[in-house]
Structure formats: structure tokens, C-alpha cells
Amino acid sequence: AHRVFDPRVSTGGDRVKYSRIAGTGSYLPDKIVTNHDLEAIMDTNDQWIRERTGIRERRTVIEGETTATLARAACQKAIEAADVDPNEIDLFVMGTTTPDLVFPSTACLLQKQLGLPDCGAMDVNAACSGFMYALSVGDKYIRCGDARKVLVCGAETLSRIVNWNKRETAVLFGDGAGAVVLEASDEPGILSTHIHANGNYVDVLTTNAGISVGWDAVAENDGKPEIMMRGNEVFKVAVRTLGRIVEETLSANDMDKTDLDWLIPHQANLRIIAAMARMLDMNMDHVVVTVDRHGNTSAASVPLALDEAVRDGRIQRGDMLLLEAFGGGFTWGSALIKY
Ligand code: COA
User: Fold this and answer.
1) What tens digit of pLDDT does each residue of 87-132 get?
2) Distance from the alpha carbon of residue 158 to the mean position of ligand 1, in angstroms
3) What is the position in ligand 1's atom list of the atom closest to the CA of 327?
């Protein structure tokens, strides 16, 4: 039977100390769009895209694929890797900014398909920081004792909200999904999570239409809302802000940058990732990079990178991981994890 409230962990003094990552999974759609493919449909070129962003290709959904179908495959792989019974999961949190529908949430659309019990299921919208936000929710539920196993996913279909006629944004984004299963543990585990937002930058990175403000703006993009970004301004604030949160995260744990084994950053731009590595005195060999093949998959990018490096054996149990992301809002978040 599903256990919403577990007296073993929820009554005073007997709380678990940590959540730990029991398993990871990810999924990418099959369709590859290379920079050369984009050259054919807009005024851009492979060299510009590679030099300015590090991106060579990205994946995009085709008809019939949605955020939920990508998320479902990623979650199934994470559940399998964690070797848990889906019926034991106490909470499902999805970071996404491109949900299938206004409602039900993408998490609810998938809950029964994944075999989860009648546990809480919700989407969290924090744009590119969505996974970091979702992870922090899962971690807190476990640490406060109200959940023992939590499924956390980041999944997006950004290709559905870019204007494919605008080179400034179209070349940057891709689709995908990544997931982790968290479980209660006396050993670390997630050491800390950090989330922040600053609504003063709403206009710098936004979409031009929506449910409540209406659809007047969509005429020029085939009836779809589109991402509007002043890339250069975002770039500068992102580097500065991520630098701050990295310091905050290390100092909250009384740790030094030399304690880190791996940086698993949000994959928006290779130059931002390289700046973070320099700040941490980390060799790029210890930074997980997927932006060259995935582009910016928003909330999916960190769990996709994590899963890739876990599955290819780079990340080993006991390694110290720093995860970080920055996105629209602005929002930003991080996690320090002893894997
Ligand atoms: N192909 C060719 N040229 C392009 C282009 C493209 N796809 N996109 C823009 N350009 C041109 C611009 O028109 C501009 O031309 P101009 O100098 O003649 O005016 C020139 O390239 C430089 O544009 P700019 O926007 O200043 O480039 P940039 O070095 O800042 O790189 C981004 C643009 C978007 C790659 C970069 O700013 C970035 O990655 N920003 C951060 C994005 C991010 O982190 N988002 C976070 C969360 S989603």
C-alpha cells in the first residue's frame, strides 16, 4: 500500500539525514538537426554557431512526440537503474516550461503510465533551472520525512517555442529529458540545494504570448509563442550569477573548489561552461559537456548530462558533484552531491 506518511521517518528526532540519487535515466528524440541543416533554412553558418555556442547539432521532436513522451522514457530508465518498484514512489516532481497541456500537469499525465501510486505529482516551472528547483523539492520532502522515494525529472520540447525563422534563438535550443530517483539515506547524498530568482530581468529572456495575456503576438510565428532573448545580456548576468551560487554552495558545506570531482552545468553555451570551469580551477576533463550534441535543452540539460556521465562510467559512487543552472526569470539553482 502507498505510504504517504511514514512514522519511521516523520516523527520527531528520527528523520533521515539525506536523500541520495538511487538511479538516473535520460532520453533524446531520434531526429538530429545539424548546424548545416540550419544553414539551409536561415542566414546562419556552422562556424558562427560552433564558435559562439559550442553547438554542432541538437535533437528535436517529430509529430507525435511531446514533452511527456520524452519524460516517460527518461523516468522509466531512472526507475530501472534505481531498481525500485514504481509503486513505492511517494512524490513525482517534473521541471518543465514546455508542458504538453495547460493542465493536467505533465507529471499527472505520466503518473499512471509510470505505474506510480496516488502520490503527489506536479510540474515546476523555473525555465532552464527547472530541474534544480524540482530536485530541491524532492530533496526537502525526503529530508523532512514525508517521502522516502521521489522521482524527479527535467523534460522539454523547446523546439516547439522557438521561431524557426529567427537565427538569434533557433540555433540554440533542443529537446530531451533526464530523470533521477531519490531515496532516503543515512549517508550523503545530496549535501545541499540552492534556488534563487530575480524578477527584475523578466524582459531579457521571455516568451511573447501565453494563456492569460493572450495570443496577439503569435501571428508572426505560425500561431505559436516564441522565445525572446537578449542573448548578450543574459550571458553576462549568467556568468556572474553562477559564480556567486557556486561560492554559496561550497561555503554552505564548508568546502573548497578542490573538493569537487565533477561539474555538471546547465548546457546553454560552451563559453559559459568554460568560464565556470576556469572559476573553479577545473580542467575541462572534469566538466560534463553535452551542449555540442544536445544544444540547450533547458530543464532537461543537467539530468541529461548527469545520466550520460554516470552511464559511461566517468562519474563513480563517492564522487563529489556540483550541479548548476541558470535560466528565464531569472532563476538559478545548484546542488552539491556526494554521488
Ligand atoms: N548565425 C550567424 N550570426 C548570428 C546568429 C546566428 N545564428 N545569431 C546572431 N548572429 C549575429 C548577430 O546578428 C550579431 O551581428 P552584428 O554584430 O552584425 O550585429 C552578431 O552575430 C553577434 O551577436 P551577439 O548576440 O552579440 O552574439 P553573442 O556572442 O552574444 O552570442 C549567444 C549570442 C546567444 C550565443 C550568447 O549571447 C549566449 O549564449 N547567451 C546566453 C544564452 C543563455 O545562457 N541562456 C540561458 C538560459 S536559456
Assistant:
1) 999 999 999 999 999 999 999 999 999 999 999 999 999 999 999 9
2) 18
3) 47
